[in-house]
Design brief:
mainly alpha, disordered C terminus, 69% helix
Length: 167
C-alpha cells in the first residue's frame, strides 16, 4: 500500500510531514534494531529525532517510542513487519501503527479501536493503548501531530494480502 492511500494526500507530501516521518521511520528503525540486534538502526533513529526535535526532546520522544515498540512486540497478535527505511510504501503493521498514533492524537476512537484489535492480542490491548498514548502525547507536546487517517484506509490495509519485501 502506498502512503497516499492512507488519507488520500500526495504520498510525497504526506511522507515528508515530520510527524508521520517520526512515527513511521521510528517504528521501522526501532523494530529493525530489535530484529537485527544491531544498534545502527537505533542510532539512525536518534539522528532523525534529534535533528527534528533537538537533543533534549529527542531523549523523551525516543524513550516513549522505545517503550511503545517494546510493549507492541510483546503484545502483538502477529509478527511485526516493516518496509526498509525511507520506503514510500507501508505494510499492514505500519498502517496500524500510524493509525494508533493518529487515532489517539485526533480523538478518533473508532480508528484507535480498529487498529488495536487488529495488531494487539485481546488481553493486552490496554497495555498497547497506554504505551501508544504516551508516545502520541509526547509527540503532540512537541508539536508533532499526525493527520487524521480515515477508517476506510485502515480497512483497506486489513483486507489487502500482497506479497512485498519486508525486513
Amino acid at each position: 500500500m502506498r502512503i497516499s492511500e492512507l488519507n488520500g494526500t500526495n504520498s510525497v507530501g504526506y511522507y515528508d510531514r515530520l510527524p508521520e516521518k517520526l512515527v513511521l521511520e521510528g517504528y521501522r528503525r526501532w523494530t529493525a534494531g530489535f530484529e537485527t540486534g544491531s544498534i545502527i538502526p537505533w542510532e539512525m533513529t536518534w539522528g532523525l529525532y534529534s535533528e527534528v526535535l533537538g537533543a533534549s526532546e529527542a531523549k523523551r520522544a525516543i524513550a516513549e517510542l522505545s517503550q511503545f515498540i517494546r510493549v507492541l512486540r510483546h503484545c502483538a497478535s502477529c509478527q511485526l513487519r516493516a518496509f526498509p527505511f525511507d520506503s514510500h510504501h507501508v505494510c499492514r503493521e505500519e498502517c496500524l501503527t500510524l493509525g494508533l498514533i493518529s487515532g489517539l492524537q485526533n480523538q478518533d476512537g473508532l480508528l484507535l479501536d480498529t487498529c488495536l484489535e487488529a495488531i494487539a492480542c485481546k488481553r493486552r490491548c490496554d497495555d498497547v493503548a497506554d504505551a501508544a498514548r504516551n508516545f502520541a502525547d509526547t509527540l503532540a507536546d512537541f508539536g508533532q501531530t499526525l493527520l487524521p487517517i480515515p477508517i476506510h484506509a485502515i480497512d483497506i490495509a486489513l483486507n489487502i494480502t500482497r506479497r512485498a519485501t519486508f525486513h
